[in-house]
Amino acid sequence: MSGFRTLxxxxxxxFWKVSVQTVLAPVLTALLYLLVFAxxxxxxxxxxxxxxxxxxxxxxxxxxSVLQNAFANSSSSLMQSKMTGNIVFVLLPPLSHLEFFLxxxxxxxxxxxxxxxxxxxxxxxxxxxxxxxxxWVLAFALLGSGVMAALGIVAxxxxxxxxxxxxxxxxxxxxxxxxxxVFYSIRTLPSFWQSVSHLNPVFYMIDGFRxxxxxxxxxxxxxxxxxxxxxxxxxxxxxxxLLKAGYKLRx
Amino acid sequence: MTAAAIETRGITKRYGSVQALAGVxxxxxxxxFFGLLGPNGAGKTTLISVLSGLARASGGxxxxxxxxxxxxxxxxxxxxGVVPQELVFDPxxxxxxxxxxxxxxxxxxxxxxxIDEVLEHLDLTAKADTNMRALSGGMKRRVLVGQALVxxxxxxxxxxxxxxVDVELRQALWSFIRRLNRDGHTIVLTTHYLEExxxxxxxxxxxxxxxxxxxxxxxxxxKLHSGCYVKLRLDGGLPDSLQALVAERRDDGTVRLGLPDxxxxxxxxxxxxxxxxxxxxxxxxxxxxxxxFVQIMRSS
Lengths: 251, 300
Known about the structure:
B: Rossmann fold, six-stranded mixed beta sheet, 10 helices
């Protein structure tokens, strides 16, 4: 497994060396969202009973950043390696497809967690955010970023050009994360849009993560856990199968 | 019988409607310096990709040091170092990091001494801590060679390693590769510079349209093209009776005649003397690999 360790370390270094771009920038973005939305919506938005809107917003923004950055890491790393051709450096060594998958997955999860911790550290000052149960918080952060990291591996393998991956990010990842209840509780939506929100897997990641902080959620945390874990298993299987087949990697 | 360094049986590869390899049987023995020649699109890089696992053959079998490249891919890849044709690099890392990471992929850690040695031989010691982005093309090429060597593979494949590399570096690179070959490494080389293949390779395979059209010791291939050439600059026109022998007319006013053997030279000189044509310049030339190559590519 030492090939795996090196690939993980390489993937970690890849984002850590440019952490201004890959960690600091998303933390700043989340902070800006907080400032703008908190100012505009603080007294107009009803969320959970007894929970301040800004406090409600903090975990949502943290989880959104975790998810977006986990996806960005594995997808852009793979796509860039394919585009520049340096993917051969990892295709020539005797790495198994499982080692390959785990290294890209865990590095992307790591970036998601680092960014998420950064967002929490930067925003928690604006509102008192309780932690009802840290196990739920960690479980959803890890599993949620795992889902997005695995999806990023699939998207990175699928994309041959920057614009293909950008389309994936802009038309799938961004709407799914924005319309997942980061900025509002879906209970405030008309019933049709509530039903639509329940089809969005990202909703369960945000909702479960938030449950860890407030002990309250829009839907049962167990149902959320089941759906997120199921998505993770399905996307991981897909990613591993594609790697095994060498899809768009070994011609 | 010991395992061949490289062995392929009936390798075929199809990309859509293009038949890149149409049944390649090849056996390269351990310790050989082997040349793989052919025009662009002949299938050289595809064959290397199949051997290294970058591509999957549509049919047939390939082994490296006796290990099947699919069933036993870990051992096969461990036995093989590949210098790719494209000048690729990872812009996030320095030269030393690049080599350390590459060694790590093969499960090798703490390779500092060996990596120092590789850097030294490739004349990269001074650049060890320089980012890959800041290197010249020739230096990047040398790092690629280094990356292929970090796991000390018994078989090394170099795909056009000297394309776009200046003369001095080319010489240095070849003396290093020769040394690796003397130390027991099997070297497989593709190149467009036929004089390089002629000087370095003990055996040569020529590919055309995905098939091997010639495979022999370099000296025997050279003898295939018997006869010689004579280059002439004349004080007057070439006599009619010699026109049939013309192999090439050059812009500098010289003409090259192809002769079946050295005896033919006497005949040429006799005709020129009888016609009263004076010779300003005369040079007898051996056929080189290029002539053999052109002849084989034409006839096959």
